[in-house]
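Posting for a labmate who doesn't have an account.
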Amino acid sequence: MTTPARQEGFSLLEMLVSLALMGMAFGGLAGLLIQNSQINRAEQMTAEVQSTARNCLTMIVQVLRTAGWDPRNSGFQTLVLDPTLTNTANYIEALADLNEDGDTLDADEDVTIRWVGDRIEWRKSSDTSEPFVILADTITNDADGDGVAETMFVPDATVNPTRITVRITARSPVTDPRSGNYIRYTVSSDIVLRKAL
């Protein structure tokens, strides 16, 4: 008696079970990939926001620390403060005689830094026809996210200040994909102004 030949391959039931298991595995893998992508994007946005705030603060502090450099004792004003400080815009103008010629009319000697709306701009010339250059365009100065911005430049006195506090809050341009909230980062520095030589 001959035995029938055994057929090789999978039955339909085995095939359906294996497809269902593969579908579940790929679904779980896709969920992990999406979650990992959101985490990476949030970390990248956080690093960009921190970098923007720190870079702006570094450049502004450098300018304010040179304000008042007057090796010839010409007697020019160190700073010009915004007389109408608001929570949506303010400016500061720093003057220094960097090339030691007795005036502040040369390049980089009269620097106006202003915060307007959501950006920081500066002009490194006393020529008011020169355009402002944008340093950053994601500056809200709303550290706590309550919709009320804080003043960027805070002097210790309105006349002859000796110290300026600079506070910068940068915000991500879009919301965090995980939480739906904006990422904020605040940096600040107290600058002691140069005294007369």
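Reply:
Got it, the structure tokens are right above this. The two ends are 118 Å apart (CA to CA).
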